[in-house]
Design a protein that fits this description.
Elements (H helix, E strand, L loop, with lengths): L2 H5 L6 H17 L5 H17 L1 H12 L4 H27 L2 E3 L9 E8 L2 E5 L7 H12 L3 E5 L5 H14 L5 E4 L3 H8 L5 E5 L5 H9 L5 E4 L5 E4 L5 H12 L12 E5 L3 H15 L15 H16 L3 E4 L17 E4 L16 E7 L2 H9 L6 E5 L3 H10 L4 E4 L20 E2 L4 H7 L1 E8 L15 H11 L1
């Protein structure tokens, strides 16, 4: 399949979405608890779909971005997605098994169980920055949990969304998985559909709109957002090591990731030491950038303009700007590539201090001591990811316990996102709910509490007419 073939997808109307929803609802009611074999079959279909089309995805994603590193696509969009699906297949039997719960002595020999039941029809709205992984991994979680799914793919990656839509339509019946395409109107129609759960991955700015729309139908919502993710480097930690690890993550896919780094905090007086170490690591990883196929472009002109406006706003309000450009290259705006740019002397009046950066711009913030650094992070909306660099276990625990964040990594960054057996989810402004691995299975399931009365029950002792036995048991229970 060529990229052109993949991008030829019609926009779906609200009537299309309602029709598909009704079809899936009827199909779910006919089979409300798919067997483990049916679920594994769906997951394996999805796995082969991704694996067999990995190079098609490399091509379409590169087309959508203008330049997206093939290796980044294979790692993030293909390898991590396949790992996530395989993890679900391996552990599905355990996740589906009802779990025994403790029973009070007063109700024994009855038993108690928690069973995970499919919700029904799930809606997923996926973003443009990882158009395969962030569409397929929540889809896999929903299918593992036994649901039907309507997936709305991003209009900002038309080639990849078109390809993914065609592949899924060929692989799954419409009453099981359906892909809908289109812009804001299609997205609004999806959010107003009475799903049994809706998952949205995207910008924090749209989260309130999603919640308001879902509230009309009392639809439970999972929000996978982003935020201003900090890294704190303790002065005892080797600066070269911290800088290299952080810049590798910062520049992965042009820093267009929800768990990427927004600002780094170093002890006052160490700002230039960090910039020197970070610039040296940039030169090793990307000696050239303009024509380097592994240095990813910004997705589109709108995002590129937004980033340039952030930079100019900061510059105009007194920020110190330092560019890491090893060969002194000239960056053509038509290619939408931006070199790593460090922004210092940041003030709260600057727009860059208030909004998610989502680009190779990196704020460098000085701090007096660790308590001050923690206070700085905690005084702002809670981030999706926290990165702390320190070999002292007591200080590491202090930061992990004292700073509220959706996820965290110690002495590195990003990798917590890549572990299928760790939950991914924000807190506060960075999101609601979580998925990946068992947490995704649980997110798309209803955990039903079940009371199992035995053949012989002692509960006759507390039925009317109440006598001395009931009074005695009540006193013992209260005591």
């Amino acid at each position: 399949m060529t990229s052109d073939e993949g991008s030829q997808v019609e926009e779906n109307s609200s009537d299309d979405i309602r029709r598909i929803f009704n079809i899936q609802k009827k199909a779910f009611l006919k089979n409300p608890f798919p067997s483990i074999e049916q679920r594994k079959s769906a997951l394996n279909t999805l796995l082969h779909l991704v694996k067999n089309n990995q190079y098609n995805f490399v091509e379409t994603i590169n087309q959508d971005f203008g330049c997206r590193s093939p290796q980044e696509t294979l790692l993030a969009e293909v390898a991590l997605t396949l790992e996530d699906i395989r993890h679900s297949v391996r552990h599905l039997a355990k996740w589906m098994k009802p779990r025994r719960r403790a029973m009070s002595i007063w109700f024994q020999p009855a038993g108690a169980r928690v069973m995970r039941q499919p919700l029904g029809v799930v809606g997923i709205i996926s973003p443009w920055n990882y158009p395969v992984m962030l569409a397929v991994t929540p889809l896999a979680a929903a299918l593992a949990a036994g649901n039907r799914v309507i997936l709305k793919v991003s209009e900002n990656t038309p080639a990849t969304s078109g390809l993914l839509a065609r592949l899924i339509r060929d692989a799954f019946p419409e009453d099981h998985v359906a892909v809908v395409c289109g812009g804001p109107e299609t997205a609004r129609a999806v959010t107003h559909t009475p799903f049994d759960r809706l998952l949205y991955t995207g910008a924090t700015a749209r989260a309130a709109e999603i919640l308001h729309a879902a509230a009309d139908n009392l639809t439970p919502v999972t929000l996978e957002l982003g935020g201003k993710n900090p890294a704190i480097i303790h002065p005892d930690f080797p600066m070269d090591t911290a800088a290299e690890r952080l810049m590798a993550v910062k520049l992965f896919s042009g820093s267009q990731a929800c768990v990427s780094l927004d600002y780094v905090m170093v002890q006052t007086g160490m700002e230039d030491q960090f910039i020197k170490a970070a610039s040296a690591s940039v030169a090793r990883m990307y000696p050239t950038m303009v024509e380097n196929p592994d240095y990813t472009s910004i997705i589109n002109d709108k995002q590129y303009t937004r980033i340039m406006e952030l930079l100019e706003d900061a510059r105009g309000k007194g920020a110190r700007i330092v560019e890491a450009n090893p060969m002194g290259e000239t960056f053509d705006t038509s290619k939408r590539k931006i070199p790593p740019i460090f922004v210092l002397n940041v003030t709260e009046e600057m727009t860059i201090a208030q909004t998610e950066i989502f680009s190779p711009l990196l704020m460098v913030i000085p701090y007096k001591d660790l308590d001050a650094a923690m206070e700085y992070v905690n005084s702002r909306p809670r981030p999706l990811a926290l990165y702390y660099f320190d070999y002292d276990k007591a200080r590491v625990n202090k930061v992990l316990q004292g700073v509220v964040s959706g996820t965290a990594a110690i002495n590195d960054a990003l990798w917590q996102f890549c572990v299928p057996d760790l939950p991914l989810g924000g807190v506060g402004h960075s999101g609601i709910g979580r998925y990946h691995g068992e947490w995704g299975f649980a997110e798309f399931s209803h955990e039903k509490g079940v009371f199992l009365q035995s053949r012989f029950s002692q509960l006759w002792t507390i039925r009317p007419p109440f006598g001395w036995i009931t009074r005695l048991i009540t006193r013992l229970m209260i005591r």
